[in-house]
Write a structure and sequence with these properties.
This protein is mainly α and 258 residues long. The chain is built from ten helices and two strands; from the N terminus they run ααααααααααββ.
Length: 258
């Protein structure tokens, strides 16, 4: 079924529109600053470090701008990774993961709570460490409380919105939000790259080379994503399986994920 045929389906169209709407809301949360925060306070710090710059890219620029959703998606991804690692140490947690749909929902609840805890620790540490250095317009206990509550609310909103995509939209919610954050930075990054190269008189040439490299990168990624391993099926002489007349089981070998 082609993409055009999918769009003709009313249910698919509703899911696509719902996904676009939720991603737009997430993007808006990434641009709303926390009340009383100096949004440009950490901009220079994030620009000078590749690690913090990468984290800011994953957050769609909301981390460096200290927006409401600054801790959102990164906290949740960190929480899911921690839960996966803890399942190796705690057999009970591993048993929950194997409990089908019920176990998956329980793991999601644990990851959600852990994401809020990570946000609480990170926001408190940030507020206390940089509060007296000019992070707030007016440094006080009330300013810290407002900032921490805002970041907690932003994390909860991002996680719940991502889950709503899985229930009523298209694709994995966390991956969709993360992809939207990354892609939203691409136009600005290209413009900055062009301006930097223009100073040396090589702006157009550098931009053309960058475009070709990005195109090749995405084509290779798509090619790898389509990689399949056909495993032969041993069937009786009565005939091929109704589900698979080819007698093979196709398995993806390069599945893209978060």
């Amino acid at each position: 079924m082609t993409f055009i045929n999918l769009l003709k389906d009313s249910e698919t169209k509703k899911r696509l529109l719902f996904t676009i709407f939720i991603l737009a809301v997430c993007y808006l949360l990434a641009k709303i600053p926390v009340y009383g925060i100096k949004t440009d306070f950490l901009a220079e710090l994030f620009a000078s470090s590749s690690i913090t710059g990468f984290m800011d890219t994953m957050a769609g620029g909301s981390f460096s701008q200290l927006a409401v959703a600054g801790f959102g998606i990164t906290s949740y991804i960190t929480a899911t990774i921690v839960v996966q690692l803890l399942s190796v140490v705690f057999p009970k947690l591993e048993k929950i993961q194997r409990d089908g749909e019920r176990g998956r929902k329980q793991i999601e609840k644990i990851s959600f709570v852990l994401a809020l805890l990570i946000t609480l620790i990170g926001s408190l540490s940030l507020s206390i460490a940089y509060g007296s250095s000019g992070l707030f317009e007016h440094y006080s206990a009330l300013s810290i409380v407002i900032a921490v509550v805002s970041w907690l609310a932003g994390t909860a909103a991002i996680v719940l919105l991502a889950r709503s995509i899985e229930d009523h939209g298209v694709g994995n919610g966390t991956s969709m939000v993360l992809g939207m954050n990354i892609m939203s930075r691409i136009p600005g990054n290209i413009i900055n790259f062009y301006n930097e190269e223009s100073d040396s008189g090589q702006g157009v040439i550098a931009l053309c080379i960058l475009t070709v490299c990005l195109y090749l990168f995405y084509m290779i990624t798509i090619y790898l994503q389509k990689g399949m391993l056909n495993i032969p099926l041993l069937q009786t002489k009565k005939g091929a399986s109704i589900m698979n007349n080819a007698g093979v089981l196709p398995v993806s070998v390069n599945v893209a994920n978060v």
